Amino acid sequence: MSEWQRIFVQNLTVPPHSQRRRHLPRESIAFQCVLKYVEGNLIKQRVLESLSEVEYQLRLSLFDISYRHFFGRTWKSTTRPLKAVPGQPPKVVFNETIYFHTSLNHPSIVTVVEVVAAAKKREGTHQDLSCGFGILHLFNTKDLASQLQLYHGTPRALLHPLLQDLIEQNKYMTVIENTHLQYTLRPHPPLETMYHLLPENMLVSGLQKIPGLLLTHGETSKGSFHSDSCMCKSDHRTVRLA
């Protein structure tokens, strides 16, 4: 498989629910989401004690609550180690910046963040374990710099018919105490100049390859753009992403 074929396959996405696609198209809205760190008890779960080389990963997906339908393509962060400081809660620092745009301007459209532990079993095989997930609303909030509460289980629980609208108030959703994801979410108009290069409902971070989009200068951190120095070139124009 050639490099271009590999990139094409990686960029395939799951379409929105058919009922949602019947609605008249709206103008797409661009977002920037910064996933800063996870802090609290979920990253010291007892089930992880028998595993070695444990690191943590964030996975971000788009979800339609009304139709219980995941769509787009799940974005995965690089794995990061646990930082333990005496007298402070355990923390995993990510500092990942994600960009995307969607025309599905409806309160039922959310992003789902999953915390995953990537570890090695005693026999040497690798295993991914879900440590919890959170629901990040896009269209019924203002610019956010906040803490996202996390729930026990995996995002697959959202597909269960007992979980209808107002998911966070459902009795089957159990909050993980003293645990949160620190994040920011806000509209990001500079991305609008690159809509023709970035498919709708595709979540991307700074170091991902996008055909037609080149990094021109600025330092990059592992898996993300530095917000004060990243610029990209598109059709002979220079566009600041962040």
TrEMBL record:
Membrane-crossing residue ranges in chain numbering: none
One GO CC term, this protein: ciliary base
Domain of life: Eukaryota
GO biological process: negative regulation of canonical Wnt signaling pathway; protein localization to ciliary transition zone
PANTHER family: NEPHROCYSTIN-4
Name of the protein: Nephrocystin 4
Organism: Chelonoidis abingdonii (Abingdon island giant tortoise)
